[in-house]
Specification:
Number of helices: 11
Strand content: 5-15%
Helix content: 40-55%
Oligomer: single chain
CATH topology of the largest domain: Rossmann fold
Radius of gyration: 22 Å
Largest sheet: 8 strands, mixed
Order of helices and strands: HHHHHHEEEHEHEHEEHEH
CATH class of the largest domain: Alpha Beta
Number of domains: 2
Length: 388
């Protein structure tokens, strides 16, 4: 039995199975199946080439397929390939589904209403070579990361990274992103980096930040940290070319929950102890694979659902329909409630076959979202210019 060939094929087969049929996180196999399924779900092309095709070719070239066991592994690789094809087709098809969501949330003629300078900078094609060959590599040569800038007094949990174009253009809009991790783990410089690096390459100033974690800290400590980040950006980001009058807040999973709360509680002194006079309002919010309910047994007021008002800022919400951590029904309910109450645009993009944490890699699915988020911000900025 060629063990060196067996291992990548079995790994890919399991990942493909769990991507197609995720196990709820609450079940015994939920956590390992999630991590296996996530990689296969977002990187089907890389999985096929590096873990199926190349090992199979090497096994034949080295004469390892000389027994029934070897041919059984070949058969497993062949049986896994159609599953990866289904996954790849879903990911490729999400671009059209996301475009439909943009039309539904912004109106069919939204592109024609964009300011010419903003419309001209929008990307037209996904970075196919990067998706196929370098899906894990996030950094870009034209973007500089200023790492570990302190925004508070909580040590490494109050540090942020700031991304900006090396030419440091002036008047740059700002995007702040908060990582996920169940509010008890995770770190900056880990999620949505494809989004942050792309926007920074287009002249934005982007921020990825740590925040205090449970169980030592509880709500609203995390939200207070985000408010501090917003206040820090408004005070210091001009040093890097930013105009923080245009400031979007984004987050993944728990970070999305926090970003939504911040967007829906602008300038609330209850969440700004010691900096009550700071402007913590935002231009818009981006809510990725988020949690929508209350915070760990606290009351409904700790949920973004309880904070929705008619003057909520524009929202872009994206959620996978196969998310094993947060049911897609929760995302639909939040988007519906927001649309019923808020007078601002709401884009809800539901990703077919999407898992949790779909923003970790350069994938066809996430790059389509990156383009849509950039276009969403362009529409909001265009509207704000018109109304100014």
């Amino acid at each position: 039995m060629p063990v060196g060939y067996l291992f990548p094929v079995v790994l890919t087969a399991l990942g493909t199975l769990f991507a197609l049929r995720p196990v709820p996180f609450s079940r015994p196999l939920g956590r390992p199946s999630y991590f296996l399924g996530l990689a296969a779900n977002e990187l089907p092309f890389a999985a096929f080439f590096w873990l199926l095709l190349l090992p199979t070719a090497l096994a034949f070239a080295q004469g390892d397929i000389d027994s029934a066991g070897g041919w059984a592994v070949v058969g497993l690789a062949a049986a896994t390939t159609p599953g990866l094809a289904v996954i790849a087709r879903r990911g490729l098809g999400d671009r059209k589904r996301i475009e439909h969501a943009m039309d539904e949330g912004l109106g069919a003629g939204w592109r024609a209403a964009l300011d010419a300078d903003l419309a001209g900078g929008l990307r037209r094609r996904p970075p196919v070579a990067r998706i196929l060959f370098l899906p894990i590599l996030k950094r870009r040569m034209d973007v500089r990361r200023a790492a570990n800038l302190a925004y508070g007094d909580a040590g490494r949990r109050n540090l942020l990274d700031l991304y900006h174009h090396r030419s440091r253009p002036q008047g740059a809009p700002v995007m702040i992103h908060l990582h996920g991790g169940h509010y008890d783990s995770g770190h900056k410089n880990s999620q949505s980096l494809a989004l942050l690096y792309h926007l920074a390459s287009q002249g934005w100033v982007c921020v990825s930040a740590n925040y205090r974690l449970r169980p030592e800290f509880q709500h609203p400590d995390h939200l207070i940290d985000l408010k501090k980040i917003i206040a820090w950006v408004r005070e210091h980001a001009h040093e890097y070319g930013a105009d923080p009058s245009t400031l979007f807040v984004a987050g993944s999973s728990a970070g999305g929950h926090m970003a939504a709360l911040a967007a829906l509680t602008p300038n609330d002194p209850a969440f700004q102890p010691g900096f009550e006079d700071a402007d913590t309002s935002v231009t818009g919010a981006v809510y990725l694979n988020g949690w929508y309910g209350p915070y760990f047994g606290q009351g409904p007021e700790s949920s973004p659902l309880a904070r929705i008002t008619a003057d909520a800022p524009p929202f872009f919400v994206a959620h996978g329909d196969l998310d094993p951590l947060v049911p897609v029904a929760d995302a639909r309910h939040f988007a519906e409630r927001l649309r019923e109450t808020s007078s601002a645009p709401v884009v809800y993009a539901e990703l077919r076959g999407g898992n949790h944490a779909f923003d970790l890699y350069h994938s066809f699915r996430f790059e389509a979202l990156v383009d849509a988020i950039e276009a969403f911000t362009a529409r909001v900025r265009s509207q704000n210019r018109t109304s100014a």
